[in-house]
Amino acid sequence: MKLTLRVWRQRNPETPGAMATYEVDGISADMSFLEMLDTLNEELTLAGDEPVAFDHDCREGICGACSLVINGDAHGPERTTTCQLHMRSFADGDTIDIEPWRASAFPVIKDLVVDRSSFDRIIQSGGYISAATGTAPDAHATPVPKPDADFAFEHAECIGCGACVAACPNGSAMLFTSAKVNHLNVLPQGAPERETRVLDMVAQMDDEGFGGCTLTGECATACPKGIPLPSIAAMNKEWLRATRKVRR
């Protein structure tokens, strides 16, 4: 396959960025998208040019580091992570636009790499339990009803990639925050901080500068782990419950 790549290049956060055009040839349909970028970077290095900076880690669809907007879609045309997207999803001769996550709360560090520390701060604001547990208890020591366990596991699948924010026209982080709130609040281990957790995490999300949620649904459509849109409604109920309790 021969492809034309239009890639966002930005030297640092202070320098304006722009799209740069590159031609790559000999791309196999069995390559992953990141392997294709590796090929591009090898060619750039051999030519004495600076390679394109992009984020990656496990390349197994688990860590969420591979954050790219491909032809306007978060993670590309398939509902998967960028590292699990293969070049068979494209055709010979295609032009592919590759950009970083487009959200003010995710400032560009360099080229395609963005700073997602805002997600870390949301988790840190209320994403843990304060109860001293000592040594790890047996998994069956605290009974959890199966519907609650299934609900918690469904939301714990969130890998914090940020595709929901990149896909949202408002740059909202509601789907991410709801996943982190819901998977802890439904479990008995998370009950002691149930109210403070949702209040603190939503407040931190707002402080980070994410946009407001208007339930367009683009976040759930783009989520590679299938976090459902009703997750946001579940968190809103938790927030209203906590707010009423605090007002009393």
Summarize the structure.
This protein has 248 residues and is of the alpha+beta class. 36% of the residues lie in helices and 11% in strands. It is elongated and about 65 Å long.
Structure description:
- The protein is of the alpha+beta class.
- The protein is 36% helix and 11% strand.
- Strands 2-1-5-3-4 form a 5-stranded mixed sheet. The protein has a two-stranded antiparallel sheet with strand order 6-7.
- The longest helix is centred in the C-terminal third of the chain and has 18 residues.
- The mean pLDDT is 94.
| Cα distance spanning the termini | 65 Å
Mind telling me the C-alpha Rg? 20 Å
Q: What's the number of extended β-strand segments?
A: 7
The backbone outline, from C-alpha atoms, is elongated
Please outline the major beta sheet. 5 strands, mixed
Q: What oligomeric state is this?
A: single chain
Q: From N to C, what is the helix and strand string?
A: EEHEEEEEHHHHHHH
Order of strands, main sheet, comes to 2-1-5-3-4
Determine the number of helices (DSSP H or I, runs of at least 4 residues): 8
Tell me the structural class: alpha+beta
Stretches where pLDDT is under 50 for at least 5 consecutive residues are none
Mean pLDDT: 94
Approximately what portion of the residues adopt beta-strand conformation?
5-15%
Helix content: 25-40%
